[in-house]
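User: structure tokens for this one?
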Amino acid sequence: MNIGIIQGRLSPPLEGFQECPRDWKSEFFRLPELNLSHIEWIITKKSFHDNPFFDCELEQYPIYSVCADNLVDDRIDSFEFVDKNLDPICLAAIRNGVKFVTIPLLEESSVEDDNKRNRFKDILKTFVDRYPNLNFSIEAELEPKKLSEILCISDTVYVTYDTGNITSCGFNHEEYIENLFSRISNVHLKDRTREGRTVPPPTGDTNFKLIFDKLKKFNYSNVFTLQTARGTEGQEIETISKHLDILRRINE
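Assistant:
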């Protein structure tokens, strides 16, 4: 099980709930003790102008993907907005040897509306053509048919499958995996209730046993990334260690 973690979960949330921590290097040093393989880097609106991803040499660090959380905005269908906020991330990803840029189409950046989704597809096609050596992974609260419309743009467009989000959306996990399996590049491990609360595994409504078994059936070999609920501040390592033990036992 190739499992990593979202940036910030191994540090107290001094900079915010999900932000790049000031002492970001310490999280990479902690990966071996938890048998974790990678970190998914986070860039938010708050950190966009001073995030270390843009000016540090990061090629030596195991960064699987950079998540452009700064794109969570209702202007996701505006080329000017996306170009200003995504292009610098793509350039930095190439410089740092990061192969995946994750684009969240969630909440304000939802493209559930057909017209908005079509405008976003045109924008994404521009970036796919501009950066042929980058992979783009879409994390979206969309049913498989609508998400597939975006994947059809290019073979370099993939899916980040967030288990908690799919649960709270009320989608069928088996159908989701069956329809999108060949394009899933990353599985965010998160437990949520059907009402949308993020809770520690396995206390929510996400059926991890079903998910793991279904992924095994299709010989899933890409990464998992832990994005579980935060616990007591200052006890991040203990919290993550507990969540990892639970999920690894379910996956046995």
